[in-house]
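Issue 218. Parser rejects a valid record. Input:
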Amino acid sequence: MIKKLLSLMLGACFTLGVAAQSTLHFNSNEGVKSSLKLYDGSTVNYTSYERLFYVTNVEDSTYQFLNVYVPEGATQQTPIFLRSYVGGYMASPAAQPQAGDATGRALKEGYVVVIPGTRGRNSSIVADKEYAKKHKGIKKGQTVYTGRAPKAILDLKAAIRYLRHSDKDMPGDAERIITDGTSAGGAMSALMGATGNNPEYAELLKAMGAAEERDDVFASVCYCPIIDLEHVDMAYEWLFQQTDSRQSLDDLHKGYTQELAAMFPTYLNSLNLQKPDGTPLTADNYLDYIKSEIIRAAQIAKNAGADIPDSLGFSFSNSAGGMFAAPINGGMRPQMQGGQLQQGMRPMRGGGMRGRQTGEYITDLDMKKYLNYVVSTQPLKGVPAFDSLIDGINNASGENDEFGDGTGSKVNHTDFTAHKNNAIITDDIHRNVKLMNPMSFIGDGNTTVAPHWYIRHGARDRDTAFPVPVYFATKLQNIGKDVNFLLAWNRPHSGDYALDELFEWVADIIK
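Output the parser choked on:
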């Protein structure tokens, strides 16, 4: 009867989304058997443990718990795949594994899957009497936004600490946690990997009632991470200023583009980056370095048979490299027919045929032409792209929400845009911006950074600019981390793709 009553109480708390007390509890006998049919028709059987609160001072019980899924055969030594479904810095409920994404694949590979819920910029509660009593300035009945920065990463850190706290009782190895996320979720995965055990989060986690445990992780998978929000507007305009889209702006916004682009080299140079060969990577050679990464991605795709049109700005070698070369621009491989080696044929536009081609290797790329191609697939964001709120001129972005407060305010978070508004960025906002930026902690000496990284950004993704994931990956490489990075060819803003490749990488790092 007592157990039933407790279950009803927790259910009511979950429905109302109000503050509550909880315990850091895991009982291996409370699992529920279930199964998931995967995309290939196979079925994976697992035991689910759901609605496990990861802090004792639960502010928003709609989100502050995690779900655990243990496939048959998992042990205490099985790696844990932690998937964040955060998008747009909004709240993310604890979900169940999906057949078509990395969670279903992780279960198939035999890994324990953990899916935490997290508060976000849109999560809110209505304060009751007890909440108002504990929080100065809050009145009973007032709507309180519970997930403004840095609440999402605090929730995820608390979830990691819960896994370590429960490690002896829960299947899965808390010393081999692999995080995964896309877009703002990619930023969360990057933060989990880049801020492990940093003391700047400690008091905030303590106030939440997080377990007194470490919160570093083994590896982070980051798809198109939206990070470095105090500098990303500079990077965006520095890259895209040369496009026809930016050149056709009105004088006011074109002026913003020019100002922001001019600020980026100083920031980039301050990162003290190095290429893999040890030479400095600066604003003077950075565009060429990005170009080389796009060429590398396109060449990988071309070698696999993808069509890489020269209309996008690519130049090709004049030689096919021999009869047994890889397919060229999507052409078929040489074939044996009637004892004779035949070059594969494919239709041309207009009904003709083309046979053996030239251009085995990509030799150059016209970046302006290529960036105009990227923009043609999806229009650029406004100027500024992220800290966009300028009174009477630009509307607020989601990031302006993210750094607002519990009243639901929208605020600037960069000095550039704040100056346009004659606004002042408070110390609290500066602190929160830092706590939401993995670049703030890489190599600072006070952080346990994940040893392994898998970072992907689409080669036609315009949601953030190529310079950002490139310098993020480079910074990690420069401090000696294992980084698998690619500007994935012709991918838009998306994640959990090329899962065969991802899980081959996971299998390799856990050996």
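Fixed in the parser; the record now loads. The chain has 16 helices and 21 strands.
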